[in-house]
Amino acid sequence: MLRRTFTGLLLASALITPALAEDVTIKYMTFSAAPNYLKELDATIAAFEAEHPGIKVTYETAAWDAYFTKLQTVVAAKQAPDAFELNFENFVTYAEKGALADLTPLIAADTGFSTSVYNPTALAAFAEDGKQYGLVESFSNVVLFYNKDLFDAAGVAYPTADWTWTEELAAAQKLTNAGAGVWGDFAPIQFWEFYKTIAQNGGSILSPDKKTVTIDSPQNIETLTWMIDKVSTYKVTPSDVEMAGQSSEDLFKAGKIAMLRTGIWLLGDFTENAKFNWDIALEPGKTSKAHHFFANGVAVSANSAHPAEAYQWIKFLTSSKAAVDLRIAAGWELPAVSDAAAVQGYLDQPVPESREVVFQALDTAVVPPVIGNWNQLTDAVGKELEAAKLGQKTPEQALKDAKAAIEGLL
Amino acid sequence: MSPAADRSKYLALAVLLLPSLAGMVVFLMAPVLSSLVLSFSEWDLIGEISWVGIDNYVTALADPAVLGALRNTLTFILGYLPSVVIIALGLALLLNRRIRGRVVFRAIYFVPVVTSWVAVSLIWKWLLNPQYGLVNFALGAVGIKGPGWLFDPAWAMTGVILTSVWKDIGFVTVIYLAGLQDIPEPLYEAAALDGATPWQRFWSITFPMLAPTTFFVTTISLISSFQVFDQVWIMTQGGPAGATSVMVELIYKNAFSYYKMGYASAISWVLFALIFAVTIAQNLLQKKLDRSDG
Amino acid sequence: MAEPANPTVTTDLTTPTGSFPRKREPLLAERAADTANGGSRFRGNDSVLERKRRGVTLPDLATYAILIAGAVVMLLPFAWMVSTSLKTAGATFVTPPNWLPDPATSDNYAKVFDSAPVGQFLFNSIFVSVTSTVLMVLFCAMSGYAFARIEFRGRTVLFYAYLATLMIPQQVTLTPLFIIMNWLGWTNSYQALILPSSFGAFGTFLLRQFFLRLPKEIEEAAFIDGAGYIRIFFTIAIHLARPALATLAVFAFMASWNSFLWPLIITTDQSMMTLPLGLSALQGRWTTDWNVLMAGAVIATLPIIAVYVFAQRFIIKGLSHTGLK
């Protein structure tokens, strides 16, 4: 079956790909493949090269922490790779600064290909001013992971879609067992968690036109207070000192956290390493539901000598059946394709049981309020949140200071 | 000087100095000068460069982030420099004694120096772990409740200093040992004949004879501690709540995270001016001490 | 003997002259005589008085106590690193800390070797570090000697220019350096990894200080025999400088071995990458496997400790054959 599809693909591509006089080598740079998915990347490249005889793909990887230092240096020297991966937030910066090739004409000329293969919301994230500067490679979001065994032991009913913070807190208090080092609930107190959590209480950082700073609104103060109270007042969430340098994910795997808000990128890790029954659910909100939405895209460099070939590669990487299947089988994030059949393999995997939650969460996605000075905004707000978390400032004061800091960046 | 001697001198300079100079110019001085030029620009590394005159410097000198980072850097130096120099000098004196096993000791004290900052920072992050760390475990054993170290704004810098002193002691010790080797022994013999106590011998012979070494060590340590970065980046990323945000961390963030290479370069040159001034001041002070000593 | 020794004890950056305080001059004359007789100047570093003592004395005991306590503090973290690298994930976060891995496992090492071509990284690291160390020692010895001994116009300014390169953080010179390498067409090459760490003001400064302290009398004798700076440097000075060269070699090797940012940027191909890059790749974006990371750290650290142990013997050997006898 697979072989037949593959042969079909080969035939189809032979018809649409113009013959190339000599081999073209496309350089590709990625962070999401290293260190765990290099084998899948190799396999994707092999499939691509089999299908596009004139094009070779070489790649380099860098760990997330170092990726942008490296990318910016090669871009500065006009040595950018032909194609490279960008997360949504940095994509905006690169697109605005003119570092990316406009793919719109290439897509228009590509008869037999339609962008309808992508999830429209996810694809739209990689467009600016009506021009498509990147193709969406994958998306991920954050949901509520919970340890069923701990719920059973405490006699607490599993989270449902209509839970609010109130039910969450009540359950967390029953689940917390200080003696056994078990914590009922965990969500980090940092910028990313904050912009999502305030949305669960109807708040925002910026007004929709991104001209007014709304971070110090009363409901945001209430939200931040709630986030901190879970640690200091209700003691259902461990403090940094109590976590002692372990990640919340490691604590969850060790059976020490009952409910954890974290990303679906951990599904594979937990499936393999969590030695207990667990599942996922939609996150409880206060007045409304809200879930993170993160997307990675692939773009072609504005300076690439082979934009057409680079486009073929990123199209293959993001939408071909071969690439999609490899990703789903490996749990290498979630391909942002619209075809329900393509992701059926994802839903069919037995653990966790409620995989459909991942797609349900998309209905209430909040996109980060990206502005030009995005990284500075995240650092400045993060610092204020940390001051509030440490008790150096009241939530009210911290958000007031954050507002002043953001106003300086707009 | 005769023309022949002149010729021989220039030939010597060409052979001995030129290779080094060529490499320095291409690989170090040119990039350094480029950063000076860039400090008058606005450059996001992606688009084109635009020139902004001294704007970056004006901004930097009034930027609370720069002042905060500067304060934290100075705190680091005040804690780090005296500790490392004094402890290392003491160790060098002990290791210079003719005792059994000193070769082994020297090797042991050097192990942290050769270990990479990545490994050292990770190990110490662990040792300073409030719950599972060895440091608080040891403190607990003698009845002291250890602080939150890297998670506590009041203690995070102390943790970074502790780690840095631990790592660098071996380095400074080895330089002092090399200095001690060069002190002629007859000096001590004569002093002993004069009936000098070990304490007197230290202050009248060892310490003054080590002056060039001390100068070298303090200069190099000062220059490098103004640029403390690796350990901060791996251990705290400048946190918690900015308590360990240092100059180079701010520079790195501006250059590669905020897309402000021009501003990052300007902060670097502000830092340069500071280091340079301190080095010159130190040099003058040392010269004065030398003179008053003679 | 040309004249009594008058070693320059200078801490001054600009004028490499100076002298001992007056009151010590007679001792120096004695020392010169000692030198002329093939004396013990460079060999001994302990007081003769101490050497003449027999048995273990009270100061010796105190010395041992301090040194052993210090050694424990120096080694414990390293021991923990090794022990953690042999533990399973579950046995890692426990109070009180466990010293002996139970159960012990070599899985973490297997994972490191599985994750990347560690052998290739190791080769690259060794090749790059050894080559740049050799070049660094040679270039710094030559330039350090020139700065210490040859008077020429602009010497002070040039020396400050050298020092200035130490005072600008690497973070802002990386990009210009990358652009230079790109002009030269050297990206992703061994020369691009090696050459930037083959030059440095630190080494030049270290060896300049060393040559400034070296008594001039031997060189002066050679001068009278008609030798020039170049011959004196290669036949006499460089041999005298062996302990300082060994010290610099260790530091140069260490710096190159642990270098991270530059190799990160200049290499594009896994076949050119060095160990620190591999170590950083073991840290995931979301979770970190501590045990595997520590195994990587052990692999990255052991070779350099071996180099130091080797170089230390060389330093001591260098000390006893300084060419003064």
Walk me through this protein's architecture.
The complex is a heterotrimer of chains A (410), B (294) and C (325). By secondary structure, chain A is an alpha/beta fold. Chain A has helices at 2-16, 38-51, 64-76, 88-96, 104-109, 120-124, 148-154, 165-175, 191-199, 218-232, 240-243, 248-253, 267-273, 307-319, 321-330, 340-348, 357-360, 374-389, 395-407, and strands at residues 24-30, 55-61, 83-87, 127-128, 131-132, 134-140, 142-147, 183-186, 257-263, 278-281, 291-292, 294-300, 334-335, 365-366. Chain A folds into two domains: 2-138 and 294-338, Periplasmic binding protein-like II (D-Maltodextrin-Binding Protein, domain 2, 3-Layer(aba) Sandwich), CATH 3.40.190.10; 142-292 and 355-407, 3-Layer(aba) Sandwich (D-Maltodextrin-Binding Protein, domain 2). Chain A has a six-stranded mixed beta sheet with strand order 2-1-3-12-6-13. A four-stranded mixed beta sheet of chain A has the order 8-9-7-10. A two-stranded antiparallel sheet of chain A has the order 4-5. Chain B is mostly helical and 294 residues long. In chain B, strand 1 (41-42) and strand 2 form a beta hairpin. The longest helix of chain B has 33 residues, at 261-293. Chain C is 65% helix and 0% strand. In chain C, helix 10 (217-224) runs antiparallel to helix 11 (229-240), helix 12 (242-258) packs antiparallel against helix 15 (290-320) and helix 14 (275-281) runs antiparallel to helix 15 (290-320). The model of chain C is unreliable at 1-52 and 318-325 (pLDDT under 50). Classes of the chains: A alpha/beta (410), B mainly alpha (294), C mainly alpha (325). Chain A binds chain B through residues 68-69, 72-73, 75-76, 93-94, 97-99, 239-245, 373, 375-376, 379, 383, 386-387, 390, 392, and chain B through 43-47, 125-126, 129-133, 148, 150-153, 239-242, 253, 256-259, 261.
